[in-house]
Amino acid sequence: MHAMIAQWAPPAERSVVSGVIYAGTALGTVGSTLLTGYLTAYMGWEWVFYLMALLAAPWCVFWMLWVSDSPDSARFISQQERDYIAAAKGESVHGKRLPFPTRQVLSSLPFWAILVAHFCSNCGWYMILTELPSFMKHVLHKNIKENAGIAAIPYFLMWVVSVVLATALDRLRTRGSITTSTARKIATGIASVIPAACLVGISFIKCDADAGTALIIVAVTSIGGMFVGFLANHIDIAPNFAGMLMAITNTIATLPGIFVPMIVGHLTTGHQTLAQWSIAFYTIAALYAIMIIFYALCGSGEVQSWNNPKAEDEEEKYNIEDK
User: Fold this and answer.
1) Global confidence as pTM
2) How many C-beta neighbours within 10 Å does residue 44 have?
């Protein structure tokens, strides 16, 4: 999706486009959570898979018929819209394949800022997604999985926050009130500081299940800032390689999905106490702190020179000739 967003979205509208597209995962979670509970109770668990397949099939047909890699190859837009997108993108985005600048990417601080943010954020995301329900059940004695309505609330609010935040940040950028770098750091700050505070807060709620549920809802809601924060930042710094950059950071950021449950399990198996869980909460909060500090210092919303390898090679050639 990053590669397509880079081709289709004018720079001033990238927050909204990225936010709406990726926040769809949260909205889809709302629908599937509510439907799964109903289908399992009244039609059997098999119908969960049947329905998902029935919904996915027409979507695939629609995608193949209507979706194009770029405006240049699109059949269903006007020439006026095509010209508008091309003019807005300028020369920072090319439709042709370019050699991936591996050395420049690996030595780029803005890229590392995104990678660190993505990794740390996913540590918190997998913690909240896979482990907090267990904490609620065994420590607070409240099984939120049994209440589909409560389970769906945070994901619905995440979708709302993502869309509203994306719209607000793009408007501020268009007016010149903030830069792209500032917009990405604001969104990333929301997606890190608030969840960290919620995890620390959970350590102090003792056995208050309602307070724990409220903090989880706030944490999940605020994580929606990542869709218009560091996740959209790949497109800002290198629109020509946004898809590849996303592939790299997302691959590494998926590793917490393996070791976070293992570490939490090691800490809490046979020791389902608030003290043991607090160790996990403080660890994730510390990672969130590292995430926002490093991103605030090294993150950037500017197109990097290595986005256009040929231009960079020509500049180096001229510098050598001048010497």
Assistant:
1) 0.86
2) 10
